[in-house]
Design brief:
The complex is a heterotrimer of chains A (58), B (444) and C (194). By secondary structure, chain B is an all-alpha fold. Chain B is built from 16 helices and no strands. Chain B has one domain (3-115, 125-423): Up-down Bundle (Formate dehydrogenase/DMSO reductase fold), CATH 1.20.1630. Chain B is 72% helix and 0% strand. The longest helix of chain B has 34 residues, at 132-165. Chain C is built from six helices and eight strands. Classes of the chains: A mainly alpha (58), B mainly alpha (444), C alpha+beta (194).
C-alpha cells in the first residue's frame, strides 16, 4: 500500500478514534438535578400552546 | 426565557408551501446536473471544453471555490470563539452549516473531474506522499470530518432541547433527536466537558483551516507553471477563502433572518461587524493581488509576462477586470461607508464578492494553462453545457442541503444565546470552570 | 546500470514529421479527427515544433522535435497521487495505464507539454483500425487515462529478449525506437550507456 495512503488512513482513523472517545466522555458525564447551576433553564415542561405558525416560508 | 425557543424552533414544526416549491426546484436542477454527469461518464471527459493544454477548467475552479467558502464557518465559529468575540453567537451555527455543507461539494468537484472515477480507490491503495493532491485529500478529509464533529458538538444541547420541547413531529425525528442528544441533561459536568472539547476543537480547526487552503493552493504552487509557481499563493488562497466565506455566511444569515423572522437575534449591528470584517478582508485581498502582479510585471520573465498580459489585456481581460470590480471596487465603498453598511448593503457586497472570487479562481486556473512554455501555440477554453449544468447542480445541492438542515435543527444556537444572557444576568461571582476560555470577553 | 539516452541533432532536423507519424502507428495512438483536433484533443507522443524567429528578411526557422524528455527529476512523477507514473531504473519515465485515475495533474505539471489525455474512448477510422500494432504493451488505452512517449519500451523489451535468447548482452543499435528507425536524416540515435 502506498505510504501516502497509509498516512491518510491513519490520520482519519486517529481522528475517528479521538472524536468517538470525546463523545463518549461527554455523554458519560454525571449529572444530577441538584448539581445544576441554572436549573430553571432546563425545565422539561411540555410545550402547551401551539407555536406561532409561519405561513409561506418556514 | 422560552421566547427564543418558540421563534427559533417553530420552523422545525411548521412548513410552508414556499419551502416545498423551492426544494422541488432545487431538486430539478440537481437532477439535471446528474443527467449531465451521466452523459459525461458515458462519453468521456471530451464532452467538456477541456483540452490540451487547458487540462483543468471549471471543475477545478469549483473545487477551490467550494473549499474556500467553507473556511468562513470555522473562522466565525472557532476563531471568533477563541478571541471571545461575543457578537458571533447568533450565527455560529449558520456559519458552521455553511462549512459542513460546502466542503463535500469541493470534494465532489474533484471526483467529477477525474478521468477514471471508478479507480478513485487507488488513492487509498497506492497513494504517494509526495503528491500535493494527496496532501489535499488528507487535509480536506480531516477538515470535513472534524467540522462535522465540531458542528455536532455545538448542536448537542439544542438537540436535547428539540428532544424535549418538540412534541408535534414524526416518530422518526423524535428517535433521531433522542439518539443524537447523547443523553444530554444540561448538568454542570456535562457542560464543563462539552465546553472544554469545543474549546480544544476550536483551536485545532483554526490550525486546520490554515493548512487546508494552503495545501489546496500548493496543488498549483508546486508546479512550475508561470502564474502558479508563486510563493505567495498559499496565503493568497487562504485570504481569498476567508474573504469569500465570510461573504457567503453574510448572505445565508440574511436569508435566514428574513425567512424565519429572526430579527430579534440577528441585528443590523451584527451585519455592521461582518461588514467591517469584510472591509479588512477586501483590503487584504487587494494587497495580495497587488503584490503578486507587481512583482510579476517588474520581473518581466517572458513566460510569466505572457500569462500576465493574457489577464490584463488578452482574452481574459474582461473576466480579470470583472474579478477586480466584484471583489474590490463594488464591495469596498458599500462596506466602508457606514451609511451603506446596512444589512442589504452587506448582502449586495457579499454577493458581489462571491461572484468576484469565483472569477478569481477561474482566472488563476485557466490563463496559465493557455500559455504553456511548450508548445508555443496558444491554448483556448470554453466550458460546455455539461460543466455549467454540473456547477449549477452543486450550488443547488448546497442550498437544498441547507434547507434540510434548517428543517431539522435550529439555525441559531439557542443554548449559546442563553449562555450569553445568563452571563449578563448573573451577579458578580468568581469565574466558573467553563469561563476560563473566555477571559476578556466583550459585551455581546 | 543501463541508462537510455537519445540524441537529436537539431541542425539536421528538417521537420519532415516522419518520426511523429511512425510513433503514432507503432504505439497505437488514437485518432482524434479534424473537429477534435481543432479543439486541441489530438495526441502526439512525439511532436516537431516549428518556431519562426526574427523578421523578414532576417528570418530563422527552428525545429524542435519533442518526445517525452524522460527528465532526470520528472515534475510529472512528483505530482502523481497514485504512482501511476514512475521513473524506472533504466531512466525511462513509465506510465501505468491501469492505475491512472485521470486527474491530469501530471499533464499540467509537465513543462514540455509532452503528456496527453484520452478524452474519449480510442477509435480509428475504417482502414486504419486493421493496422494496429498487436504488441500487448501498446494496447490502446481506455478513456480517461494519461499517455505519453515511452521510449518505445516494448522495443527495449523485445531487444532484451532477443539478446538473451542469443546469449549475449545488449549492444549499441539493438534498441531502435520507432522515431529513430524512421528518421531519414539520421537526426536521432539512441545511445546505450553503462
Amino acid at each position: 500500500m502506498g505510504e501516502g495512503s497509509l498516512i491518510l488512513i491513519s490520520v482519519i482513523a486517529l481522528a475517528a478514534l479521538i472524536y468517538s472517545g470525546l463523545l463518549v466522555w461527554i455523554s458519560q458525564a454525571s449529572g444530577s438535578e441538584e448539581e445544576m447551576l441554572y436549573p430553571q433553564q432546563w425545565e422539561f415542561e411540555r410545550w402547551e400552546e401551539t407555536p406561532p405558525s409561519r405561513k409561506i416560508f418556514s | 426565557m422560552r421566547d427564543p425557543e418558540k421563534t427559533i424552533l417553530s420552523p422545525l414544526t411548521e412548513t410552508g408551501l414556499g419551502y416545498y416549491l423551492l426544494a422541488g426546484l432545487l431538486l430539478l436542477v440537481i437532477m439535471w446536473g446528474l443527467w449531465a454527469y451521466i452523459f459525461q461518464l458515458q462519453d468521456g471527459l471530451g464532452v467538456t471544453g477541456m483540452n490540451r493544454p487547458v487540462f483543468w477548467g471549471v471543475y477545478i475552479t469549483n473545487f477551490v471555490f467550494f473549499i474556500g467558502i467553507s473556511h468562513a464557518g470555522t473562522l466565525i465559529s472557532a476563531i471568533l470563539r477563541i478571541v471571545g468575540a461575543e457578537w458571533r453567537r447568533p450565527f455560529t451555527r449558520a456559519a458552521e452549516a455553511v462549512t459542513v455543507l460546502s466542503l463535500p461539494f469541493g470534494a465532489i468537484s474533484i471526483f467529477v473531474d477525474l478521468g477514471r472515477p471508478d479507480r478513485v480507490l487507488n488513492l487509498l491503495l497506492y497513494g504517494r506522499f509526495q503528491s500535493p493532491l494527496l496532501w489535499d485529500f488528507t487535509a480536506v478529509s480531516l477538515y470535513l470530518f472534524s467540522s462535522i464533529f465540531f458542528f455536532y458538538l455545538a448542536l448537542i444541547p439544542d438537540i436535547a432541547l428539540c428532544r424535549d420541547r418538540l412534541t408535534d413531529i414524526s416518530g422518526f425525528r423524535k428517535r433521531l433527536y433522542r439518539l443524537l442528544a447523547l443523553g444530554w441533561r444540561g448538568s454542570n459536568e456535562q457542560r464543563r466537558r462539552l465546553e472544554r472539547v469545543i474549546g480544544g476543537m476550536s483551536v485545532f480547526l483554526t490550525l486546520l483551516v490554515v493548512t487546508v487552503h494552503t495545501v489546496v493552493a500548493w496543488v498549483f504552487g508546486m508546479t512550475t507553471q508561470p502564474g502558479w509557481h508563486s510563493t505567495i499563493i498559499g496565503p493568497y488562497f487562504l485570504g481569498g477563502a476567508i474573504f469569500s466565506g465570510v461573504g457567503a455566511v453574510a448572505i445565508v444569515t440574511a436569508i435566514l433572518r428574513r425567512t424565519f423572522r429572526l430579527e430579534e437575534y440577528i441585528t443590523p449591528k451584527h451585519f455592521d461587524y461582518l461588514g467591517k470584517f469584510l472591509v479588512a478582508l477586501s483590503l487584504a485581498w487587494f494587497y495580495f493581488t497587488f503584490a503578486e502582479y507587481l512583482t510579476t510585471l517588474y520581473g518581466g520573465e517572458p513566460a510569466h509576462m505572457s500569462v500576465f498580459w493574457a489577464k490584463f489585456s488578452g482574452e481574459f481581460a474582461p473576466l480579470f477586470a470583472g474579478m477586480f470590480i466584484f471583489c474590490f471596487l463594488i464591495p469596498l465603498p458599500i462596506l466602508a461607508i457606514p451609511r451603506t453598511r446596512t444589512i442589504l448593503g452587506v448582502v449586495i457586497a457579499s454577493i458581489s464578492i462571491n461572484i468576484g472570487m469565483w472569477l478569481e479562481r477561474y482566472t488563476v486556473v485557466v490563463p496559465s494553462l493557455t500559455r504553456p512554455r511548450l508548445p508555443y501555440e496558444l491554448g483556448a477554453y470554453s466550458p460546455t453545457g455539461v460543466e455549467w449544468s454540473i456547477t449549477a447542480a452543486f450550488f443547488a445541492g448546497f442550498f437544498l442541503l441547507y434547507l434540510i438542515f434548517a428543517k431539522l435543527f435550529p439555525v441559531i444556537s439557542i443554548w449559546e444565546i442563553k449562555e450569553a444572557e445568563e452571563v449578563e444576568e448573573r451577579p458578580a461571582e468568581p469565574e466558573r470552570g467553563w469561563d476560563i476560555l473566555w477571559e476578556g470577553r466583550q459585551e455581546g | 546500470m543501463t541508462r537510455w539516452g537519445m540524441v537529436i541533432d537539431l541542425d539536421k532536423c528538417v521537420a519532415c514529421q516522419a518520426c511523429t507519424a511512425a510513433c503514432r502507428v507503432e504505439n497505437n495512438v488514437p485518432f482524434a479527427g479534424p473537429e477534435q483536433d481543432a479543439m486541441g484533443r489530438s495526441i502526439w507522443w512525439n511532436e516537431v515544433f516549428r518556431y519562426i524567429e526574427g523578421e523578414y528578411p532576417n528570418v530563422t526557422l527552428r525545429f524542435i522535435p519533442r518526445p517525452c524528455m524522460h527528465c532526470d527529476d520528472p515534475p510529472c512523477v512528483k505530482v502523481c497521487p497514485v504512482d501511476a507514473t514512475y521513473k524506472d531504473e533504466e531512466g525511462i519515465v513509465v506510465q501505468r495505464y491501469e492505475r491512472c485515475i485521470g486527474c491530469r495533474f501530471c499533464t499540467v505539471a509537465c513543462p514540455y507539454g509532452a503528456r496527453y489525455f484520452n478524452w474519449f474512448a480510442p477509435r480509428w477510422p475504417e482502414p486504419l483500425d486493421q493496422a494496429l500494432n498487436p504488441d500487448p504493451e501498446v494496447v490502446p488505452r481506455p478513456t480517461g487515462v494519461v499517455e505519453k512517449c515511452t521510449f518505445c519500451i516494448q522495443r527495449i523489451r523485445k531487444a532484451k529478449e532477443k539478446a538473451e535468447a542469443e546469449g549475449r548482452p545488449l549492444r549499441d543499435g539493438d534498441v531502435v525506437p520507432a522515431c529513430v528507425q524512421t528518421c531519414p536524416g539520421t537526426t536521432r540515435s539512441v545511445k546505450y550507456r553503462n
